[in-house]
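Notebook p. 47: complex prediction with magnesium ion.
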Amino acid sequence: MMTSNEIRKKFLDFFQSKGHTIVPSAPMVVKNDPTLMFTNAGMNQFKDIFLGNAEKKYNRAADTQKCLRVSGKHNDLEEVGHDTYHHTMFEMLGNWSFGDYFKKEAIDWAWELLTEVYEMPKDRLYATVFEGSPEDGVPMDQEAFDLWKQYLPEDHIILGNKHDNFWEMGETGPCGPCSEIHFDLRSEEERAAKPGSEMVNMGHHLVIEIWNLVFMQFNRKANGSLEPLPHKHIDTGMGFERLCMVLQNKQSNYDTDVFSTRIAEIAALSGKRYGEDEKADVAMRVIADHLRTISFSIADGQLPSNVKAGYVIRRILRRAVRYGYTYLGFNEPFICKLVPGLVEQMGEQFPELKAQQSLIVSVICEEETAFLKTLATGINLLEGVMNKSRAASKSVIDGKSAFTLYDTYGFPIDLTELIARENGMSVDLEAFDVELQAQKARSRNAAAVENDDWVELVAGANTEFVGYDNLTAEVKIVRYRRVTTKGKTLYQLVFDRTPFYANSGGQVGDKGTISADGKTLDVVDTIKENGLPIHIVNELPENVEATFTAVVDEESRLASARHHSVTHLMHKSLRDILGSHVEQKGSLVCPEYLRFDFSHFQKVSDEELRQVEKAVNRMIRANYALDERRECSIEEAQKAGAMMLFGEKYGDKVRMIRFGESVELCGGTHVSATGVIGQFKIVAESAISAGVRRIEAVAGGVAEEAGYKTEETLKEIQKTVGSPVLLQAIRKMMEDNAELRKEIESFRAEKAKAVAAEIGKMIDGQKVISKIVDMPVDMVKDAVYALRTANPDVAIVLGSREGGKPMLAVAVGDNLVKAGVKAGDVVRTAAKEMQGGGGGQPFYATAGGKNPEGLEKAIAVAEEMILSAVGK
Ligand code: ATP
Ligand code: MG
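Predicted complex, structure tokens below:
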């Protein structure tokens, strides 16, 4: 039997022999692309080439790509675990032609690989072909049909509709018909009973799609129409895990060697056996699958968090925990225990996994621990809800509570239903759905963006970036479009050349102006989309064909550059001082400050932070000149000791930035020499998750200002204290203060006694005694309490307006309590007269309020209530 590693290798070797360049997988987590969070198909990393925004480096390529389908257009999450052939993360094997070969070679080679190299039985293979679409004016794909006819009998070639056989990158952009290859894994009897051709694309787990060959030949425009592409491309994707199932003759992806060891480990940990109970089986599959997604995501630098991609990962992790908790009885962290086995299996092909094993384990462990706690809280909450329903003789859990559990505690509705059912109850699913739809509508509205088609002024032009050397340039618009977000209209401009740095690599985009014909427009931001720098302006220039003078705001660019260069120096110092386990996990560089996240397992001490500051400032004073190499080969950079980051996509040519001993691969803008940074100051250090710390720091003028601020605060204190020897003066003040406080306490105690004595004298047969005192009522508490004990037939009502705030206290003797007086109720009602509230025991209660004018009235109400309670 071929192992999965052999199967992968054979694919790559085969296409290499057909003149393809083998390229590495792009990171699974997509950075610097606002249109996509995760790589969901092999073609993503070549998107810029298909869109014509980037030069192609080769005509043919092949690879295995880490894909994740859990959000957006492709979302298989709910299937995963329940079926046996959809994963969240999977490897997609692919071969590409960029304007080179087309349908013939794509189909011939697919057939050759499957039947000759892999020796698949031909009679179990089926191919689908696009049936055509009159509304789009696209005829049936006769060419593909005829090509398949060389190999397959006609009843193994099936016509498919737009849904299955027309592939589109998005709402707009490159698209074309596709041809899928399916395999029938059923037994001889089943196949004899019903032909495979009737089972294709019917959702049967043994008749499955393994490979999709996409023939990109059209471009879809915003108005929905299609135009032919000038260059036709081939884009194919074959699910690696499904291929292994076919070649290893299994009936489930999870029975192949890609997953079987993991499933065995999970079974052993839970003390259950795989294949005995469907629910436990689903849970084991979910965990085996999600483990890969979470681990690879962390290795790519995307940690679980509360926003965006991080939140998607957190939810996946929680889904695995939940299945393990509910169906396998895990109530302490278990996913983290599976990491070593996964690393052993996949670490060879994906070294990023091996290198970051300890980070992956600690992050998962912390997340699991936290979520198990949340689960327990949620279950308590649900019990509360069920008790309430029972008390009201209802057996339905209301939709709102179910939604809160879902939204806040990560309880999917089926878990709530399950627990409800176990308790003989049900859930109001309709009401739950109403809440869910309302929330979806809210987030849809928040995210609604409308893009017009690009208006092309110069066809197929790319942007030359001149901003490393120039802050101004003469530019022309090559394309523009209108964009409407949340009702606001903006324009996006693309230039033939630009001095504006577009947001990427953590550094924010430049701002500035463009002018022509005496009119100047503000460029409010520069972003990067599909590899193109896009300039955002509030209105469209009158003459879009003019030549514009583009000017970058120099001050903010320089401030960003200072923060970027100093980030490199700090990264180097952190590694020198804390150790080489420090790896960048995220960064933000803007004119105001820098933020840097990195792996490190404990708090960075004040002393270490000071050491880092000193080291960085030393490098600033050394005034290392910028040594910039724009077209460095990746090998050279490696030799020079440049730090490479996991989860980053590097081309063959990289830009290397060196300041003294700090060497990094970086596309950002930098200062000409470290002296320009001026000074460096760390302002905060914190944890952002297990094993990841965050430092915020400032440089240059911002650091100088920070220094002034501290100095001014000190001077201010000095002035107030009136002594230059600050520490000594403050210590003296604190001692004096403590002494004075003691004295006041004893004075007040004396006074309280005197007040109590006065009240004591007032007791003379009546049921209620009232008095307004000139100190906070709780200070008299002990004395009044003693009076209450000594006089079981009296209630005492005290009021005060100390510090302008009305207060009320009521103490009730035991006999009156027995007679039904409740001090708590009394103050609660009485306090309304002074716009306040309070409460307490039946024998003693206090209240505060906002309106001192109402105090007398409140006392009167209290007296009245007490008297009426004792029936007088
Ligand atoms: P399906 O209809 O089975 O979901 P698809 O039409 O979404 O497949 P494509 O987008 O064409 O699939 O992806 C190409 C190949 O990737 C498929 O032929 C299949 O082998 C594999 N594939 C797709 N989605 C998954 C997944 N969630 N898990 C594993 N493999 C997948
Ligand atoms: Mg799919």
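Notes: The two ends are 98 Å apart (CA to CA). Residues 69, 76, 86-87, 90, 92, 209-212, 237-239, 241-242 surround adenosine-5'-triphosphate (ligand 1) (CB under 6 Å).
Next step: compare against the earlier run before touching the bench.
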